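Q: Give me the 3D complex with nicotinamide-adenine-dinucleotide.
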Amino acid sequence: MSDFKMIINGQLVDGEASSFDVVNPATEKPFAQCPAASHEQLDQAVAAAKAAQPAWAATPIEERGAMLDKIADLLVEHKAEIGEILAQENGKPLPNAIGEIGGAAVAWTRNTAKLRLPEETLKDDDDALIKVHYKPLGVVASITPWNHPILILIWHLMPGLLAGNTMVSKPSSMTPLSTLKVIELMNSVLPAGVINCVTGEGGLGRKITSHDDIAKIVFTGSTPTGINIMQAAAPTMKRLTLELGGNDAAIVLDDADLEKCADNIFARIFGNSGQTCAALKRLYVHESKHDQLVEMLAERVKKASVGAWNEEGVKFGPVQNKDQFDFVMELIEDTKAKGGNFVVGGKAMDRDGYFIELSIATDVTDGMRIVDEEPFGPIVPVIKFSDTEDALRRANDNENGLGGSIWTADEEKGWELAKRLESGTGWVNQHSQQMPFTPFGGAKMSGVGVEHGLHGLVEYTQLQTLHMNRKGGAM
Ligand code: NAD
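A: Here is the predicted complex, encoded as C-alpha cells.
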C-alpha cells in the first residue's frame, strides 16, 4: 500500500499528530496508516487557502473550468488505482468503486466545469443601473462521510472551486485514504493552496466548524453532527450546506407494474448495502401487491452475492464499520423482539468482517425502530397499507425529509402524490436517482440547502446587488 500524505499549500506532508489505522471492513483488520493533522496544521491549511483565494477568484471562470476538466482526465487515468484504495477502506466491491470514480465522479466534474454564474440586470435605464451578481465566499471547508467518500467529495469541491473559492477538505477518518489520493491529483493541476486536505481525529472537525477564516462549511453526514456544526458555525455566521440523514419512504400503489419495477426497487434498497443517504428505507406496499412484491424482492435477495471487495462476482459489501454494524444488528434484534418477521436475512453472516445478510422484514409497522429510524444498512421494513391517503400520512410522519417515491401505472396520480411528499426530492417509479443538473437537498431534519447544477453552484457564492444612480441626485 502506497504512502499517504496530507496536502497543505501545495505540499505533500506527514501528520504532526502522528497517524492512525484505517480498517478494511471485510477483514476487521487495519490495512494502512493515515496521517493525523495537528491543529496547527489545520491552521496552516486554512491560511494557505486564504492566501491563494484572491488570485484564484481573479482567474477567469473559463480557466477554472478547464482545470476541473483536467482533473476529470486524471480521475479517468487513475480510477483503478484509487478504486482499489476506496474498495478496501469502504468495503464496496472493486468494480463499483472504480465505476464510482470513472463514472459518476467524472460526470459530475465535467458537468460542473461547464456551469457559469449568471449576472442579472434588474434595471437599466436613464435613472439607474441595478444588477445582481455572485461572488465567491472565500475559504470553504468540506467535511465528508464514509459511505460514498469520493462522489460526495466531488459534489463538494467542484462547484466550490468553480465559483472561485479555495478549499480545505476533511474526510471521514473511516475512509480518508482515497480522498488523499484524489486531492493529490487535484493539487497537481491547481495552483498551490487552492485545494488542501487534512485528515485526523481529535476534534479536527470541530475546530473547522468554528474557525474564523472559514466562510462556509459544506457537510454531508448524520443529522446529529449537522446540528453540532450549525451550532458551532453560528458565532461566525458561516454559510452552510448540510446534507443529512434520510429515512426515505416509497409507496407502491395497487396499480404498480411489479414486473417492471421490482429490479429497480431491489437496487434502490440494497445498493451500497443500504448505506446511501437517499436509499429506499421504508417500503409501504398496497395490500393487494404486498405478498407478491415481498416474494419478488426475496427471490432477488437469495440470488445476490455478498462478499469482500476483491471477491469474484460480488455485488454487495459489508457494513462499513463496527459501530454501524452494531446499530443495524440492534435494529434487527428489536424487530424480532417486537414480532417482526425476516422473510430473508435477519442475521450477521458467519465470517470475519462486518457482514450482514440482505434482510427484508414484514409484519412491521410505524412506531417500531426499524421503520422510524434510519438503518443505513442492508435491511428494509415492508409495511402493508390499504388506503393511499393513510400511506402518504405515514410516509410524511417522520422527522427526515430527504427523498420519497410513488410507484404507479398512473403518471398523473403519481406526480400529484409525489408533490405532497414532505421531501427535498420526490420520484415517480424511481428512487435515489441524482444527476449533475438535478438539485438535491433535504427537507425538515434532512438538511439545509441543495447541491448540483446552478442551484448548487450559487450556494458557494455571496449574492451582491449593485446600484448605480445615473441621475446624480436623490432618486
Ligand atoms: P457522521 O456525521 O458521523 O460523520 C460525517 C463527518 O463529520 C466525518 O468526516 C466526521 O469526522 C465529521 N464530524 C463528526 N463530528 C463532527 C463535529 N462535531 N464537527 C465537525 N465534523 C464532525 O456521518 P457518517 O456516519 O460518516 O455518515 C452517515 C450519515 O450520513 C447517514 O446519516 C447518512 O444518511 C448521511 N448522509 C447524507 C447524505 C445526503 O446527501 N443527505 C449523503 C450521504 C450520507
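A quick observation: The first strand starts at residue 6 and ends at 8.
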